[in-house]
Design goal:
The chain is built from four helices and seven strands. The longest helix is centred in the C-terminal third of the chain and has 15 residues.
Amino acid sequence: MILPIIAYGDPVLRKVGKNIDSEYPQLSQLLENMWETMYKAEGVGLAAPQIGKDIRLFIVDTVPFSQDEDLDDDERTFLATYKKVFINAEILKEEGEEWAFTEGCLSIPNIREDVYRNEKVTIEYLDENFKEHTEVLNGLAARVVQHEYDHIEGIMFTDKLSSLKKRLLKKKLENISKGIVDADYKMKFPNIK
């Protein structure tokens, strides 16, 4: 089932997510719905807060980035198969040079800005079977995971912009929270009763 994506301005997007366990109700159905919702919206990641759940859960599928001709063959091959569920994730380390990349967010349609992030990240998480993993990611995979991880920490990519950029985007962000935006997918707006 395709779920509405929560728009910028909803308080759930600012909450630090709670850990869940294997008894979380209907987790497999929730994951199925999240995949379907993400693909319908043409995203590469989706976090539970974006569908109204304040839990530490997000999914990523970097296949769309594997078409990027500017990447080397190894990174393209890796991105072509990187599809994961992250439960109770914790970033252990961010390292390497910060680099800019234009990011967008399903909760903030039609706004894309350069965001600086570290090139390498070490993350610990549970998969959908509650098996523990620790991974070191680089490049675009690291960036997608950092973006989605921010969501479970109550952080939006716009928080990482300069104060000038934030001021320039203020009206657009207010409009999104009021439902004054065109999106090609179902959304739920906080300021529409």
